[in-house]
User: What shape does this take?
Amino acid sequence: MLFIDLIAQGLVQGSIYALVALGLTLVYGLLRILHVAHAALFTLGGYIGVLVTNQFDSLGLAMVVAILVSGFAGVLMYRLCYEPILHRPPFVALIASIGLFIASEEIFRIAFGAYGMSYKNPPLQAQVVIGFLSFKQAELLVMIGGALIIGVLALLQSKTRLGIACQATVTDPQMAESFGIDLKKVRYVNFFIGSGLAGMAGVMVALLNNLVEPTMGSVPSYKALAIIVLGGLGSVPGTLMAAMTLGVVESFGTIYLGKLLDRNAIAFAFLILVLMVRPQGLFARK
Amino acid sequence: MEYEISLVTAAGISVLFALSLNLITGFCGQISLGHAAFFGIGAYCSAMLCKAGMPFLLTLPFAMLLAGGVGVVVGLASLRVRADFLAITTMGVGFLFVGVVRQQDVLGGEMGISGIPDTGFSKLAFMTLTLVLCVAAALFSQYIRRSWMGQVFNAIAEDEDTTRVLGIDVPRFKLAAFAMGTALAGLAGALYANNLKFISPDSFGFIESMTVLSMVVIGGIGSVLGVTAAAVVLSLLPSMFTFIGDYKLLVYGGLLFLMMRFSPDGVTGAVNRLMAKGKR
Assistant: This one.
């Protein structure tokens, strides 16, 4: 029983990782930037979720607002911060992004206090029993909502004009441009979608823990980096697999290796191990 | 005077730490986001040995050796993965170090190690020792930069593949950079532990890795003088302007971002550009 329970917990955690990492992968695939500040949008989403829910008592509204605001904030971030330094060597954008992330964590702390905020009456906390497993409603929302969103996105990407334009741009930006694809538009759309997803993940994590705090983004941000590397940098299916794998590895690891390593260390030990054996990532095509 | 001495000592340790990362990231172009781990290894090694009764000065070589040894192992990773992958791997090493130390009761776990025995040095003597080591490290860096090895480092940083094609044994030089850089970080860590008499895993986390990276970046990647100056200014900033204290990370983060956004080659680059403009 413990075995299946651990897998289930791992999958819940993995869904969150997947939502955060997906946006990161979209950005990496397009721009080859390790976008650490992505997690700032995750935190932003979490805060908006709590603020709006407490104000208007509607989780649905909170979700929509969080996705929209995080999405636009992401586009703004790209426009103001990344676009001007795209032609520089990659570490420039990486370090700029880390700086941006540290600064934004501090802004959250200064604006909303170091101790974080919670829902006044947290929604979706009831337990649901499925077979012999029991979940919180919020956990189910995370898993099902996550899977649904990712499925819809995959469909959009392969069926719509814009989705195909995105794929073309990832594969070969120059060729895509010469076929008349507006690179700028594709990049904006990608940043919007990726950042919106991060915002949504923020709301969901806030639901799971019933807490938002300034530092809530740091662990997902570094984990998400580990995940996109495991997934082979820029590959969407690889990222999803890697997110789920990492979620499960962590939940087993904390039980069996908890005495030796803490949760983060388990994730990164796994990452380093994989990279040494397969430097191109777990699910990358050769 | 007490206060000034402790400030100068702390700044000196920062300089040493920043110069150590400069050898790896500045000279050899290998980005490291987990450098605080080696600082930590040096600190823990020296602290444990001191508590076991070894004289302080004798622990320094051991701290360097252990940090450098682990550094070579991580350096081996840099042979497998490059650029972005390496950045993430080194970040992982940082988290791994903190995670391991946290769970080991032998190393004091969450609580860290306190009550590290007296070094036998007066405050003033300890400061002098730190400064002497700083000057030595700076001179050593300059020497390396001018040497054949420094030229190769530069070539690797500029274009690894071409360097390889020229028949240069790139892996050997990369490992050398990691060995030297991490050993120096271990030395800085040992000084840090004996200066504060207390260490805990939190002092060697990701934020510290980022702080030291920002010193190197803001100083101007690769420039010994620039990095030294940036390390002094950034480590003194919070104590000089106490009102910054609470916003220290905001200032670091903001500086890091603005620097990369407007002058990716750091203050040194900005100064050079201004000079070039003045001459015209």
Summary: The first helix of chain A runs from residue 2 to 31. The domain at 2-277 of chain A is CATH 1.10.3470 (ABC transporter involved in vitamin B12 uptake, BtuC). Chain A has one domain: 2-277. Residues 44 and 199 of chain A are 7 Å apart (CA to CA).
